[in-house]
Specification:
Length: 324
C-alpha cells in the first residue's frame, strides 16, 4: 500500500489525538475525574495507530495493555469522548460507563480490553475463525506485549491460526518491560518475531517509533491474511514513557531506571519524530501540523466538558447488559 499525503496526515492526527486522550486521563486521575485505573500508552502511539489506521470497517483491532487500546480505538473511529466517559463511569461511555476501563465497541471492530494478560490470544483465534467463516475478507490485528508472549495461550493460538490459515496479524509491542520484569530475563528468543518460525508464518521486526514503518509492515501482513495465506507476526520495538500504571515508578528488576535512559527513550517520541519527517520531506508545513494539534486539543476540551456534564452510569444497565 502506497501512503498518500492524506494518509500520512491521518496517521499524524490519530497519534496526536491518542496522546491528548491519554494525557486527559492522567490529568483526570490527578483531579479525581477519572474513576478507573490507567496504564498509559505514551510512547506507543506509532505502534497503536500505525497498525490500525488503514484497516477496513469490518476488521477487528484487539488491543494489548498499553493505553487501554486508546490508539486502536481512535484509529478505528471511536470518538475520544466515549473513551473518556467510560473511564469516568459515565452513561455516555462506549460501554455505558460500566466497563471500568475495559472499553469495547463491537460495531467498530473493537472487541475489548482484557484484564488477564494472554486472554486476547484465544479470543483472537475465535475472531479469526469467525472472519474466515464469514468469507468477507475481514482480518484481525491482535496486539500483545513482550510479557504476554510468555503465556501458553499464545503458543496454542499461534499454532491454530497457522494450521487453519486464519486472517490474523499478531502484533507484539515490545517495550522491553512487563511491569518491572525486563524482557531480557523473560523472553528466551532474541526477538519475539523469532517465534513465527516455529509456527510457519512470516515474522518481522520493525521500529515501533516509526508510524510509517509499522503501517507498511502491518498492511503487508493484512494483505497476506485477506488473500487467505494465513497469519503473520510483526514485532514493533518500542518504549513506554510512563510507569506501568499511574502512581507507580519507572523500575526495572528492583532498580529505578536511570533518568538518562528514560530521557533517551523520550528523545524517540514517535509524534515528534514523525512531525519532523513530514516537515523535512515537504509533506506538511508547521502551520498545518499546528492546526491538527490545535483541533485535537479543542476536541479533547469539548469532550471533557461533555463528560463532566454526562450522567453517571445507569444502575439498570447492570442487569440488562448481562449475557444469559
Ligand atoms: C495472567 C496475568 N498475569 C499477570 C497480570 C498482571 N499484569 C498486568 S499487565 C502486566 C504486564 C504485561 O506486560 P506486557 O505484556 O509486556 O505489556 P506492557 O504492559 O509492557 O504493555 C502484568 C504482569 C495480569 N493482568 N494477568
Amino acid at each position: 500500500m502506497k501512503l498518500e499525503r492524506d494518509d500520512l496526515l491521518k496517521l499524524y492526527r490519530n497519534m496526536v489525538l491518542t496522546r491528548k486522550t491519554d494525557e486527559s486521563i492522567i490529568d483526570g486521575i490527578k483531579t479525581g475525574r477519572v474513576v478507573s485505573f490507567f496504564h498509559s500508552g505514551q510512547g506507543h502511539e506509532a505502534t497503536d495507530v500505525g497498525g490500525v489506521t488503514f484497516l477496513r470497517k469490518g476488521d477487528w483491532a484487539m488491543a494489548g495493555v498499553r493505553g487501554h487500546g486508546v490508539g486502536q480505538a481512535i484509529a478505528k473511529g471511536l470518538a475520544p469522548r466515549e473513551f473518556l466517559a467510560e473511564h469516568c463511569g459515565k452513561a455516555t461511555g462506549c460501554c455505558f460507563g460500566w466497563s471500568g476501563f475495559h472499553t469495547a465497541n463491537l460495531e467498530l471492530g473493537l472487541p475489548g480490553y482484557w484484564g488477564t494478560v494472554g486472554t486476547t490470544f484465544p479470543i483472537t483465534l475465535g475472531l479469526g475463525i469467525a472472519c474466515k467463516k464469514d468469507g468477507k475478507g475481514n482480518v484481525v490485528v491482535s496486539y500483545f506485549g513482550d510479557g504476554a508472549s510468555g503465556r501458553g495461550t499464545l503458543h496454542e493460538a499461534f499454532n491454530m491460526t497457522s494450521i487453519y490459515k486464519l486472517p490474523v496479524v499478531w502484533l507484539c509491542e515490545n517495550n522491553m518491560l512487563a511491569i518491572n520484569m525486563p524482557a531480557s530475563e523473560a523472553v528466551a528468543s532474541k526477538d519475539v518475531a523469532d517465534l513465527a518460525y516455529g509456527y510457519n508464518m512470516p515474522g518481522v521486526v520493525v521500529d515501533g517509533q516509526d508510524v510509517v514503518a509499522v503501517a507498511e509492515a502491518v498492511m503487508i501482513a493484512v494483505e497476506r491474511a485477506r488473500a487467505g495465506d494465513g497469519p503473520s507476526l510483526v514485532e514493533c520495538k518500542t518504549f513506554r514513557f510512563r510507569p506501568h500504571s499511574e502512581g507507580g515508578k519507572m523500575i526495572r528488576g528492583y532498580q529505578p531506571i536511570p533518568e538518562e535512559e528514560i530521557a533517551e527513550w523520550r528523545s524517540k517520541d514517535p509524534i515528534v519524530l514523525f512531525r519532523k519527517k513530514l516537515i523535512e520531506q515537504g509533506i506538511a508545513a508547521n502551520v498545518e501540523l499546528d492546526k491538527i494539534d490545535g483541533d485535537a486539543a479543542a476536541e479533547i476540551a469539548v469532550a471533557e466538558k461533555f463528560v463532566a456534564e454526562s450522567p453517571l452510569a445507569d444502575p439498570e444497565r447492570m442487569f440488562n447488559s448481562l449475557y444469559a
